[in-house]
Amino acid sequence: MSQLSPSLRWIAYASANLVIAFLVLPILAVIPTSFNQASFITVPPTAWSWRWYEAFFQDIEWQSALWVSIQIAVLATLIALAAGTPAAIGLQRLPPRLRAAMTGLFLAPMIVPVIVSAVAIYRTALDIGLNGTRIGMALSHAALALPFVVINIGIALRGVDSRWLQAAAGLGATPWTIFRTITLPNIVPGLVGGAVFAFITSFDEVVIAVFMAGYGAKTLPVKIWESIRLEFTPVVAVAATLMILLAGILFILARMIGTKRNGVTV
Amino acid sequence: MRGDRLNALLLILPATAFLLLWFVVPLCRLLALAFTGEAGGFESLWTLLSSNVYQRVLGNTMIVAVIVTLLTLVLAWPVAYVLTRLKGIGFMLMLYGVLFPFWISVLVRTFSWMLLLERNGPINRFLMGLGVTDQPLALLFNETGVLIGMTHVLLPYAVLPLFSAMNRIDRRLLQASDGLGAAPLDTFRRVYLPLSLPGLFGGGTFVFLLCLGFFITPALLGGANAMTLSMLISSFVTDRLAWSLAAAGSIILLAIVLVLMGLAMRLLPLDKGMFAK
Question: Which residues in chain A have Cβ-Cβ distances shorter than 8 Å to B274?
């Protein structure tokens, strides 16, 4: 067992590679479909063209959906970072029992099934008139993204030795100076990692978005969702390809910064 | 020290206030609707639990979750094992193969499967080309589609805990077992498998819980033929405006998830580092 027999070894490696192919290839199947020339979806296309990309970039609705998605994702990222960064630092200084309880609260949006969060937030947003607004959507996405920010910065903070902070305080540095000159430079990877996850969490999110979008905050995933259910045109494949492209860029970016997407992800 | 404590509380204040206002309060307000409908009391919960239709939806949700969990564990096993044996570029490539799908929207991944599983799609053409079937199989808008799509989306969640458990198995134990004359199968059954169980249960619980609340993939790949609890909750809100029933459904879903999670944390030697390595 410490060394599998050659035939078993071969079976293990072959099946692992097949499973990886099953994971990756179906995602990539969308990309050739987006270069279809026909006016219906065929996989793989029989003739190639850019016509659906032209259609996407000439259609005011797809344009606006892409733009709204980017705006909401940026706003959600800023909110999640602004609330999550101090929270991650504060958590470390709490007594163990309170820290466990607060960690539970901060991770709750990751544990509660999204359909339940979506219906709950939708209801309250309806009652206070924030439904169908970009700020309402950004707040909802920030709640989903907050756990990733807290986790990422929490991991980065483990690299900050508390004796450095004590030494700085002993030398008379103010808390703000200590944060700016010691903590902050050391948690930059966690901040960037948290920001990237927060952005992609919002940009990819569909369930809350489908309920909350209304007319004022129709994001790209909502537009895709509606198109799949109504017309199913090759333009959807273009939108899906653009989303894969953006996720790919962010994936490589996150790898280059050297942060790992640890633990739980959505 | 008291100043420190106060500082820490001030630091967590913005996030706490934000989550209370935009997450906890809305959640409580929704759940309360189950008890404040026209019927009042426990009427909505009772309606949901006693109706044949809803019982079938609940049963279907459970069956899908069990099958998907088993499928993901079987598929995750070889990947996790090979990951523990690979080094360098081979390891990175396989790990990226597991991590990359995380970054792609569930909606996009589900859309992909709609293209592939279509009546005239590549998978049906392939199967017909092989002579496996004469007529295109119905792979979409039924349980089959849901099972394939959900297994695909949730597989990475099973691989990572399994890999982390297997990676911590001390290989010298296996060598010792071999050295003491155990057959490879015995070493596997009595040493390797028990030591990888925490990862197997951890990953399995995780996938099962995610399955129960899954919405996008079953809604698109299964449609009305394969209703799950999350689709039922959504249809209460969007099609019927039956908020108290939606709230009752949410209570049931949330209760199942929380109870199972509590049990898992209590009973399983879950890797505490799973959430933050």
Answer: 263-264
A110 burial via Cβ count (<10 Å: 0-12, 13-18, 19+): buried
Segment A86-105, tens digit of pLDDT: 999 999 989 999 999 999 99
Structural domain count, chain A: 1
Q: How many CB atoms lie within 10 A of CB A48?
A: 11
Domain residue limits at B165 = 48-274
Partner-chain contact B187 A1, CB within 8 Å: yes
Q: Could you give the CA distance from residue B3 to residue B126 in angstroms, rounded to a whole number?
A: 69
Q: Cβ of B58: how many Cβ atoms within 10 Å?
A: 20
Same domain, B106 and B200: yes
Q: Which of A239-243, A251-255, B86-90 has the highest mean pLDDT?
A: A239-243
**Does residue A2 belong to any structural domain of this protein?**
no
Query: How many Cβ pairs within 8 Å bridge chains A and B?
Result: 269
A63 lies in some domain: yes
- Cβ count near A91 (within 10 Å): 22
Are the CB atoms for B55 and B49 separated by under 8 Å?
yes
Nearest of B236, B258, B149 to residue A211 by alpha carbon: B236
- B8 and B71: one domain? no
Residue in the block written with tokens 């309606």: B47
Query: ipTM, 2 decimals?
Result: 0.89
Question: Apex CA B93: angle with CA B91 and CA B96, to 5°?
Answer: 105
pLDDT digits (tens, 9 = 90+) for A45-78: 777 888 889 989 999 999 999 999 999 999 999 9
Segment (H or E) for A245: helix A235-257
Residue A128: closest C-alpha in chain B: B26
